[in-house]
Amino acid sequence: MDREDFMQAALDSAENGMGFVNPNPMVGAVIVRDGKIIASGFHERYGSLHAERSAFAQCNKKGINCAGADMYVTLEPCCHHGKQPPCTEAIAAHGIRHVYIGSSDPNPLVSGKGAAFLRSRGIGVTEGVLKEKCDKLNEIFFKFITTGLPFVTLKYAMTLDGKTACYTGESKWITGETARRHVHRERLRHAAIMAGIGTVLADDPLLTCRIENGRDPLRMICDTHLRIPLDSNIVRTAEKVPTMIVCGEEDAQKADALKNAGCQIVCLPNGNGGTDLSALMKMLGEKKIDSVLIEGGGTLAWSALECSIVDKVMAYTAPKIFGGKSPFTPVGGKGAKSPAKAFMLEDTTVTALDGDILIEGRVKKCSRD
Question: Smallest Cα–Cα separation from 48: which of 15, 76, 68, 26?
Fold first, then answer.
């Protein structure tokens, strides 16, 4: 095995913390001696041991002296006191010879200071091993820690001809099981999931994460006039799954009924005829909600793009053609007035999902005037 193989092992370990460490980053670490991994660890939950200390705990449990070994860690070790003490001190105390780092930590409390501390203690440091993969693993954390705003992903499923439903309105299922399982991993990864009231009225979804031992994200429904039915799946399960209804004008009687059902009601001023999404993102950031997955419908998707809150688009495309003149498309709204004014994606990737195709990319930040 070479350096990249060991860092990949650390990456694989880091993903075990998906959905449970927010708003902290996912981090994995492996300890290597004589070309073999002797211990590994990952950040399991927010507030728990960091990956490096988790790996050292495994060494202690196995009775392994890791002095003189190398460590591979996906993110620059912390050098400050938070919910856990500095990992840099633990690395020095355990006699690690060389540390290989994937991503630099953009957190101002770390940001190069962790690597500098290790070097000051005579520990070798190599940075940027599988940097691109390590950076992508924590794209949510990187935005949140530098801006205080959630990382926003717009997700939708469509046919080859761009339809999200048949002319009858029937939409289950467009994609296959593999793609749908992939969506549930994204629900696990994100702290919150957001949908418009139109989607609730049309599909009556649950918007939960159906992964064994997973975690349900906060459900947010943009419902300007509080039209959500009290017998909808969202409201009926609000006592078990965190649920926020975001409205623009509060009907006191309806709001009280929703609160009694377990929903949180947030009233925000309207923006462009609907929820002020920029104000909502600011509020979520203040609540330490680091990520939002937008799942339906077309009006909300356009509004999110138009107010520039979307960081990433994930388009699941099925090899089907519905045809017809139905208005069921993933992004509605006014639309672009010319191809030159379209929203553009960059850093795009294409992934095959057992017949379906996932196209994802970052929304290019540029003026569309």
Answer: 26
